[in-house]
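User: Quick sanity check before I run a bigger batch. Here is a single chain. Can you write out its predicted 3D structure?
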Amino acid sequence: MLSQIDVQKFNTLIEINTLINSNYQDAHSLVTQILDSATRLCECESSSLLLLDRKSGELYFDIALGSKGDAVKRFTVKLEEGIAGWVVRHNKPVIINDVLNDKRHLQSIAQEIDYPSRTMMAVPMRVKDQCIGVIELINKKNAQFFVQDDLEWLEIFANQAALAIVNVQSIEKARDEIQHLQDELKKDQGYHTMITKSPIMTAKLEIMDRIAKTDSSVLILGESGVGKELFAEQIHLRSLRSTKPFIRVNCAVLPEGLLESELFGHVKGAFTNAIADRRGRFELAEGGTIFLDEIGDLALPLQAKLLRVIQEKTFEKVGSEMSITVNVRILAATNKDIEALVARGEFRNDLYYRLNVLPLYIPPLRQRPEDIPALAAFFLSQGMGETKKQFAGFSQEAMDAMLAYSWPGNIRELENCIERACVIGKNKWIQEEDLFLKKTAAPSFQEGGSRELKSAITAFKAYFIQKVLEEHHGNQTETAKALDIQRTYLSKLIKELNIRLS
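Assistant: Done. Predicted structure follows.
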């Protein structure tokens, strides 16, 4: 008759096999579940799964469970070192019930993380009889020893883990190849890949879906580098105009005279060097969408001409009196405080309201930290392709640093940071020092000062608002948007907290 523990093991194996044979696409989660099941059912304190990097000839800790799991993942093990290295070299399992006296034991890791190993069981993970990694179970509970029955069960779990890794890696490889082809196609067409995981951005995408179905003008607001152009692309791609042209114009890069010709075209002889008629961007966008980036830099005379295009769908080329009718949807974007520009008379009030029919504010990266791991992984994949180098991912310290950083340059800064890390990185994992992130000073609390929670919260609030104001060069409207509070409330806080304005 099977014991209760055997029934649990069999049921666990059936459950895991079902997942492996399904279209399970998260290898790390599945293998973590397998390792957790082995740890629990073999009744031990901790466990780890090491994978073999054949290029470097080292084993790295892919998963580590137990009280020292995060600490141990910083290390790698050479094939000639430790019990795990022995298992890979010999492709054999091993039970060691007196680890401290075993010459194969790599004591340096145990000493550094302050976690003594008393008993250990390690088995190879095999694919077609070739070892791809090792599963280790450490310290049988209740001062017990590992026995042969434990080893046989662990070998079954190890075979499951190896099968899961191979299956999902095959799926991921196929998916990556498909995604790569799709990305290349988008690049050929001038489009970018949008990646987001955060709830706040999911909500923005839902709004964007509704906006895309209309023909109204859209004003996209947000700091530099947040991805305003990507949102404009997605609005076009999800609209009924998706099969028609998507034309981009950066209003900040050309002087007024050239920009007018760029937007509306010119006729031969309209000015020096106008040796032939030229179609402008609005004509090229016929039936589709035109994206006017940095609209806040558009000169007032051009603003008047743009207003007419929105209202009457007509314009004249430079040097011509003939009106041209166009059917174009206008998307505009700016990182400036456009309401302040209107108040100062630098942007037409009537144009602002025509463009602002459907406003869409894109939050900065610091307000959506859930996006950082996914974006970082995407940029790492790109960086590896460009540098022809391979990395397993980011160390925990590197990821913690990225999550703690405020990213004043937003996604563009993150992309540049990881591109640089790919160039200079020398380890299996991207390290914190490879990122070259600036350290942000925290508010100081002097010795003998108040330890009341209310005082500490007030001090931090003043510090935090001061830093966000500095990031926005003292612009209170943009700072209020970043903090997700009303501008009037921000002004009140500045006075109450005696915040210095530079």
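The longest strand covers residues 130-140.

User: Great, the batch can go ahead then.
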